[in-house]
Amino acid sequence: MSRRDKLFEPYRQVKYILKFDIYIMKNIIKIQLGQNGPLVSKLGLGCMRMSSVWGGSIPDERESIATIHGALDSGINFLNTGDFYGAGHNEMLIGKAIKERRDDAFISVKFGAIFHNGRPVGMDLRPIAIKNFINYSLTRLGIETIDLYQPCRIDNSVPVEEIIGTIADLIKEGKVRHIGVSEITADQLRKANSIHPISALEIGYSLADRQIENELLPTAKELGIAIVAFANTAEGLLTGEMKAPLAEKDYRNHFSRFQGENLINNLEKVEVLKQLASNKGCTPTQVAIAWVKEQGAHMMSLVSMSRRSRLPENIAAMDIVFTTEEMNTLNTTFTIGAIAGGTYLQR
User: Fold this and answer.
1) Which Gene Ontology CC terms are recorded (predicted)?
2) How many domains does the chain contain in total?
3) Residue 85 known to be catalytic
4) What domain range is 19 assigned to?
5) CATH number of the CATH domain containing 291
6) DSSP string of 297-322?
7) What is the pTM of this model?
8) Would 271 be classed as within a structural domain?
């Protein structure tokens, strides 16, 4: 049996769309957001790459919309965006994609980052700004209520009480359903949750980035807050496709993790991941995603995609299980601090 056949064997009995070469699943596992929140798919669709975030070209819009539709058809209902992705382009794109399918989609929106000419220049978390941001987002998305609304980061420029309190007021107005937070500390999470129940914490998490296991993850679990984990492949490190040195213009050259001896040493650890994936008949990317989803019933793997061709592989990752020996191999190879050098997740 070929590698492709092995990958798709679990899907032979489900609906097949000949035109798009996508196997459609309707049994994506669900997780609950917060203690009494809604059920959403354990695999989320990150829509950022469907827009020009860092000043690059805009991906093909028809392909992006087809990817969103394919995700919704498969049972992936969690769509993640930010009002600053492509200066609003991402929200408008999602608005087009869900125009006739609002009930199929759970929309998560981040706010607060200020961009100029495709580059971040600061944050604005003032209540007056939040009240402005929400109305633009609702208009671009073409909806009346955002399902999950969250500051993209809390930088202490504005008291947590004012930020969360403002979103709580938006819930009373019917413009927001649930409050989320992103990239914050354990202390900030406790404070935010004391002001209003927090449903979800969006945070970078992977085999290569496990520092949040020390305080942040235990705090979220204690408070009953779901984890929306992005960067499952650690900016491509865990895909098994990276080689040293990186291309001269690769943005990852700015981070010490991807420089010189650090990258060489880190890729040696990735060889263990590649061998384990080969033994299981899957890809390193699938193993990386599967490891994240195995970290608890409250854990979502948020995967960025802009092409529908990526859907089958990522959906199949949700069915991967590990033996005790395999999990021990991964956890010991990629123990906290095993990956040398920092990245933007350590800011």
Assistant:
1) cytoplasm
2) 1
3) yes
4) 15-236+285-322
5) 3.20.20.100
6) TTEEEEEE-SSGGGHHHHHHHTT---
7) 0.90
8) no
